[in-house]
User: What shape does this take?
Amino acid sequence: MSQAPEYTMSQRLGAEALGTFWLVFGGCGTAIFAATAIPADAQMAVGVGWLGVAFAFGLTVLTGAYAFGPVSGGHFNPAVTVGLAMAKRFSWRDLPGYVVAQVVGATVAGAVLLVIAEGIAGGFDPVESGFASNGYGDRSPMGYNLGSVIVAEVVLTAVFLFVILGATAKRAAVGFAGLSIGMALTLIHLISIPISNTSVNPARSLGVAWFAGSDALLQVWVFILAPIVGAAIAGFSHDYLLGPDNDPEPVEPPAAPS
Assistant: This one.
């Protein structure tokens, strides 16, 4: 039987950066370019809308999990890394490197998206467009206030971590983790795009906020803190609520009657 390969830390960090790049490029790119696209020779939008953006984020995680997950574990999200560490499924020692790699991957994706967007006829203003950034109040797609956004981001990130911890447990069906996690992220976006433009991922939020103006940067703290709090709650409470992810103890056969 061949032994599973052992990857170096640089390979793992590279996989995390690539996976996070793909998540931001695919998900935010769909929001920027395709959500309300208007062809030059048409009078009405023919974009994919919020439904399409939700599926884009889910598909990036699904495909990224199978492409890069075998190398790094496929976190692509600082909140996921924190939640897994809280659940004792990941080493705290490796957490800073993962977070840096994720933020770098997201930021490079945001920069590439801006370069592409600026090529449109008539120019492109990332501040005016919002550039797929997250927000509350007048920066929320439907005007939801700070309290609503915090509750949504904490609760949805916690649920996302419960799905990840359950789908990747030893007791879970083998080979389906990427599918269930990707579909969970799709559902999360279907719920919360109108509320906050959906973060549940500090790297995703930072990756585009750098380019979306001062208002986006002033609000981005919410989308760093709330997802981490939600993930930490789920990571800490998962074993208490659903049981530890341990192999069952062997059952001794009953003694033969004497």
In short: The chain has a mean pLDDT of 91. Residues 106 and 245 are 31 Å apart (CA to CA). The domain at 9-241 is CATH 1.20.1080.10 (Glycerol uptake facilitator protein). The first helix runs from residue 9 to 34.
